[in-house]
Specification:
- The structure holds two protein chains of two kinds.
- Chain A is of the alpha+beta class.
- Chain A has five helices and five strands; from the N terminus they run E-H-H-E-E-H-H-H-E-E.
- Chain A has one domain: Heat Shock Protein 90 (2-Layer Sandwich), CATH 3.30.565.
- In chain A, helix 1 runs antiparallel to helix 2 (48-68), helix 2 (48-68) packs antiparallel against helix 5 (148-157) and helix 4 packs antiparallel against helix 5.
- The longest helix of chain A is centred in the first third of the chain and has 21 residues, at 48-68.
- In chain A, 39% of the residues are buried.
- The model of chain A has no long low-confidence stretch (mean pLDDT 92).
- By secondary structure, chain B is of the alpha/beta class.
- Chain B has three helices and six strands; from the N terminus they run E-E-E-H-E-H-E-H-E.
- The termini of chain B are far apart.
- Classes of the chains: A alpha+beta, B alpha/beta.
- Chains A and B meet through helix 1, helix 2, helix 4 and helix 5 of A and helix 2 and helix 3 of B.
Chain lengths: 184, 126
């Protein structure tokens, strides 16, 4: 069987997910996903604090896909997509888990891995200072601010960000990122 | 100067910048994919206001959500206000946050530590 991004989330409960989408992540899809999740969160008994955290983490996760997903490899079935990605949001006993998958050019893997490793090794105070440093001193680009989205997710969740890479071919790697907003 | 009045949308905030009153307000959600496009006219308007600011400028920021792409654009707004403050004009920034929204309070504190303008954190109790 040929590789699909879905292979990276075979351990997740996609059918029971609050949100599941795979395809071209454009502005309209982001709007629909946010509307859907906001409606579902309002129907729960979650506190406004938790609802806001979940919503914020979802915004940054979807917009990470929008701004940073690299081109889909040639030969992959959705190679015409500009911003191809997958998102799953699950409600677990301990909180809400948001997982995104996309392709990353092999040349970007090391930099991304180093960035995430640095975030995961940092204390909340260090993450806060790094966030302010980038906010104050880095110029904004068409792709947003490098790494600020990941730092924001780390700050809002207070948990380490789980990530994994899987080589697709010599030029492309499939990437999975998972953040947990704890409700306990 | 003509005021800027923009209606809010699900992804962009409502804006009211009125040079005759010296009261500026940004309110709602700021989560567009391209924040630069939204904030560019606001910052250009402020560039003009900075030439002849009122003795006192009050800025009310009342955001429910904002994304990291907006965070830099909002800082650019504040840097212009800082320049007005440095030119010996009163500037006051009121940063509103909802009760228990510690993330929004922290975001305000981040800006307060970067920008040298009097910042007031105001909790909204529902």
């Amino acid at each position: 069987m040929s590789f699909d991004l879905e292979n990276l989330v075979s351990d997740l409960d996609i059918r029971g997910a609050v949100l599941y989408f795979k395809g071209n992540v454009d502005s309209e899809i982001i709007n629909k996903a946010l509307d859907l999740v906001e409606g579902k969160l309002l129907a729960t008994r979650e506190t406004p604090r938790i609802r806001k955290k979940v919503y914020n983490v979802l915004v940054e996760s979807l917009q990470n896909l929008y701004h940073h997903a690299d081109l889909v490899p040639r030969g992959y079935h959705a190679s015409r997509s500009d911003r191809y990605g997958l998102v799953v949001m699950e409600k677990l006993g301990k909180g809400y888990r948001v997982t995104t998958c996309n392709f990353v050019s092999a040349v970007h893997v090391r930099e991304l891995e180093e960035k995430l490793t640095r975030i995961n090794r940092s204390s909340p105070e260090e993450i806060k200072e790094l966030y302010k440093e980038i906010l104050n001193h880095q110029e904004i680009t068409e792709k947003g601010l490098g790494g600020l989205g990941l730092l924001d997710i780390a700050r809002k969740t207070g948990h380490r960000i789980d990530f994994r890479f899987r080589k697709y071919d010599n030029q492309n790697t499939a990437f999975r990122l998972t953040a947990l907003v704890a409700t306990e | 100067m003509e005021p800027i009045i923009i209606e809010g949308t699900p992804k962009t905030p409502s804006v009211k910048f009125d040079a005759s009153e010296g009261i500026f307000e940004i309110r709602g959600r700021s989560i567009p994919e391209n924040s630069v496009e939204f904030y560019k006219p606001l910052n250009e308007w402020l560039d003009n206001y900075m030439q002849v600011p009122l003795d006192k400028t009050v800025v009310n920021i009342r955001l429910e959500y904002f994304n990291t792409s907006s965070s830099k654009c909002i800082l650019d707004v504040f840097k212009r206000l800082e320049a007005i403050h440095k030119s010996k004009h009163d500037v006051e920034i009121n940063w509103f946050y909802e009760e228990d929204d510690e993330d929004m309070l922290e975001a305000g504190e981040d800006y307060d530590s970067i920008i040298k303008v009097p910042f007031k954190m105001i909790e909204i109790v529902e």
